[in-house]
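Tokens as discussed.
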């Protein structure tokens, strides 16, 4: 179902068939709020008129937090529907090897990456273990507690053993992000490491590589890759820089602001969008002349400011 917005002339929910939608995040974070897949505003939706209907509210990822799942919301005629989305803080698990060796690091019995890792995990106890590597005996598994908002470091000390061998029958998966950004790389839906994968040993087969969102970037689509025995398969996630569009009114007021004909928010907007031209228009405010629409260019890495003078 498409997100049906009120016409620009609607300034109150007394309009037949319409209500208001408000969305807040807890805590306040630079997520992008979407309604039925349409990006509305950054951080929150302060108040936007919408046709009375069922809608889906969703959010982009913020590094270090568990993103709430999509929320089914019913906008009621003549009422203001408020949504509060809880972003749960995670903790960082940092794992190193001494000396630096190509051991596969497991967290909770799941292979995550080789050599070392930085991984956001849920607060609580986690077990870190180390795979075999030629020339060394792996250390025993370690169970550690990870606290929200903090970094827990585990160092695995390997002891020389000339008889130790590498695992057989595996291939290597290498994943990078371009540019290097703090995305979490997942393989078959399981988070493995941040920024990329150095070289992860996997059994031969078909895998799907996906990336978490990073603020101010467009997230690449998932990639299907084949890992072959004895070979290195490489995936690069291209993150495209977005541009900022900030819209304010003077004097400040509750005008509904639309972008390309879609009402996004009131009381101003600060949103990131792909490079291109956009038309910003303004809703009516009693006792004021409505400013004309403005067509502006959004440039990657820059913020375009639009001022609606009432």
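Sequence:
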């Amino acid at each position: 179902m498409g997100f049906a917005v009120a016409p620009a002339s609607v300034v109150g929910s007394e309009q037949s068939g319409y209500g208001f939608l408000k969305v807040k995040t807890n805590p306040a974070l630079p997520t992008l709020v979407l309604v039925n897949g349409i990006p509305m505003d950054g951080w929150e939706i302060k108040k936007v008129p919408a046709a009375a209907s069922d809608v889906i509210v969703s959010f982009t990822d913020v590094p270090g937090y568990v993103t709430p799942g999509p929320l089914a919301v019913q906008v009621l005629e003549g009422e203001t529907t408020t949504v509060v989305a809880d972003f749960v803080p995670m903790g960082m698990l940092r794992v190193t090897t001494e000396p630096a060796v190509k051991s596969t690091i497991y967290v909770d019995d799941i292979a995550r990456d080789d050599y070392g890792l930085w991984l956001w995990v849920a607060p609580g106890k986690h077990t870190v273990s180390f795979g075999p590597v030629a020339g060394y005996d792996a250390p025993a598994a370690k169970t550690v507690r990870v606290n929200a908002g903090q970094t827990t470091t585990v160092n695995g000390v390997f002891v020389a053993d000339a008889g130790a061998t590498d695992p057989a029958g595996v291939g290597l998966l290498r994943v990078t992000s371009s540019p290097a950004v703090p995305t979490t790389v997942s393989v078959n839906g399981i988070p493995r490491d941040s920024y990329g994968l150095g070289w992860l040993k996997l059994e031969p087969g078909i895998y799907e590589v996906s990336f978490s969102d990073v603020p101010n970037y467009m997230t690449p689509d998932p990639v299907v890759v084949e890992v072959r025995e004895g070979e290195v398969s490489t995936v690069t996630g291209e993150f495209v820089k977005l541009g900022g569009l900030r819209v304010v009114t003077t004097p400040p007021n509750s005008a509904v602001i639309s972008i390309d004909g879609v009402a996004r928010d009131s009381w101003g907007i600060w949103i990131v969008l792909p490079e291109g031209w956009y038309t910003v228009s303004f809703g009516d405010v009693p006792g004021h002349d409505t400013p004309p629409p403005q067509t502006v260019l959004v440039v990657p890495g820059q913020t375009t400011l639009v001022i609606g003078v009432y």
